[in-house]
Amino acid sequence: MLKLITHPLIIHKLSQIRRKETGTKDFRQNLDEIAGLMAYEITRDIPLQEIDIETPVSECHTGEMAKEIVLIPVLRAGLGMVDGITSLIPTAKVGHIGMYRDHETLCPMEYFAKFPPNLPDSIVMILDPMLATGGSASAAITAIKKRGARTIKLVCIVGAPEGVKKIQSDHPDVDIFLSALDEKLNENGYIVPGLGDAGDRLFGTK
Question: What is the C-alpha separation between 148 and 133, in angstroms, rounded?
Fold first, then answer.
């Protein structure tokens, strides 16, 4: 399933990070806020378990989350989405995965992985601002599935049709959440119109 989250506040903040004049501070803040706003829609179908509690006034039959949330940012740009979501779900565990592209095979290769032990029973959100070719995201999903994860959501800010198609082909069981589906990839593999290199703009590097 592809879900576009197009709340006016998200579109407004996305416009800010698309601007080439936007500096590191504002890029980082708006990216963080977009992720937090997206979290409301992403968590819409989280299962609840019934509980009985006691308020200062009376007993109350209510609910609480029945599954833990695990956030897995794809290094390094995915780190810019973590705080926005943990501000809403402070109990979420955070793993990390790093991928690089092999210069000879051009295939994504895992160079770092550290995950909480509860992946099989958790709702796992893979975080990466850009879904371009989909190669790194697909490899990250495969790696996380090998560690036992069963319920996976891919959360990106901007995506290209090529990347969406790749994930839908390789992992039809994974839901994709975007705030914008852009036009295409250019000859250099950048999303058009996109927002440039999210990692460089987030951390002020080149």
Answer: 25
Q: What is the pLDDT of residue 101?
A: 75
CA distance 89 to 97: 20
Q: What burial class does residue 173 get, using C-beta atoms within 10 Å of its C-beta: 0-12 exposed, 13-18 middle, 19+ buried?
A: exposed
pLDDT at 109: 85
DSSP letters, 32-89, are HHHHHHHHHHHTTT--EEEEEEE-SSSEEEEEEESS-EEEEEEETGGGGGHHHHHTT-
d(CA 7, CA 12): 9
pLDDT of 103: 65
Characterise 118 by phi-psi region: left (phi > 0), alpha (psi -120 to 50), beta (else): alpha
Q: How far apart are the first and last CA of the chain?
A: 34
Residues with Cβ < 8 Å from 57, sequence gap 6 or more? none
CA angle 22, 204, 29 (to 5 degrees): 50
Which H or E run contains 124? strand 123-127
Residue 39: half-sphere exposure toward Cβ, Cα within 13 Å? 25
3-class SS shares of the chain: helix, strand, coil, % to 5: 35, 30, 35
